[in-house]
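Hello everyone,

My group is preparing for a crystallization screen and wants a predicted model to guide construct design. The compound we'll soak is zinc ion. Before spending weeks at the bench, it would help to have a computed complex in hand. I've included the protein sequence and the ligand's SMILES below. Output in structure-token form would be ideal because that's what our pipeline reads.
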Amino acid sequence: MENPPVTESVDLERMQRRLDEIMSIGRTEDGGVTRLAYSKEESTAFDFVRSELDDSIEIRTDSLGNLYASPDLESAETTLVGSHLDSVYNGGRLDGALGVVVAMEAIDVLETGETSTAAPPTLAVFRGEESARFGCHTIGSRGALGMLTVEDFSRTDQNDVPLWLAMQRDGHQPSDLSEPMLDLSRIRRFYETHIEQGRVLVESGDDLGIVTSIRAPVRYNVTVEGAYDHSGATPMGLRADALAAAGELITAVERVASDTDDVVATVGDITARDGAINKVCGEVAFPLDIRSDEVPSRDEVERGIFDEFSRITDKRDVSVSKAEIDRSDPVSLSESAIEELTGAASVTDAEYLQLPSGGGHDAMNFQQAGIPTGMLFVPSVRGISHSPKEETYPESIRSAAIATAQVLSTPDT
Ligand SMILES: [Zn+2]
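Reply:
Good plan to model first. Here are the tokens for the complex, ready for your pipeline.
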């Protein structure tokens, strides 16, 4: 039997209130939020979510501090739905929190309504999704899925506190992490709603996005070495200027990636070591981030960039070395989950579009663990994210909650 649509029961005001309350935890002076992985603020946000759950909901916290809540935590099957509550430094109010609030709303609507669910849904809220504090991403979801490594635990924050110690200080005792902490055989799907963090939806004018794949980066730390010299005493023709060379290398990165449709390459930072106004700079370091949802085209851009690096450094008499720090595989999300979300989006009034995700999310780990996974995006107003100015449209929040409640109520076909 077909379930009635859940459109009427979704309560936008309740979602806005929950977003505001989460926003007030770790709020910064200029209207952003700092709620870092395994910080007091992140824990307080988890406490808030617990306090909002109905008495009929069973709650479990695993040894990493991830939260699971369901009408029946022991059911033979479940669909997980959720996101994260940590943020970058001075981030926005929607990254992570929106996915949690939308999931809570969908579960509330299904619990109190007439709609039957295919399997009792489980709210899943993960710790430490952002790499802002420890330099490693999706800590909670990778831990839950048995994907965390020993190296991850020894990563330190800017005060040299290692991840394992931050976890302990927050009251968690992670144990045997080589195995998933979740019983994967119970989980039929994972769904996550997130703010897009790009401009595709605002430019197309759609209210909702259905994510087809998640782009993955290859990342390097690049060092350019030339020679330090006096800026007044060294003729232009006798210099090995590492900073001027870096300028040329960085524009080469931009040029090579601009020749493609589906690869993006970025140098987001630069350090001129021991630089000064009266010196020719002898050593420069910068990071390089190349992403695509297709490995062959990403490989081609990577080769193209390094060919240009060789050409430029030969010409300029400087040397370049590069240390690879990440090589992740792009993830194609489940066809069946995409189909279910597309069907659910058509129940809402929203205009929707399929698109790839530029950023990484907890969802990619679930798909990699073999669980059919789907993601919904709401538009980023002016494309802004990881900023106090991050915003979306109320109607998109409402549509995301309706679509999420709808997929949770859709029986298996
Ligand atoms: Zn996020």
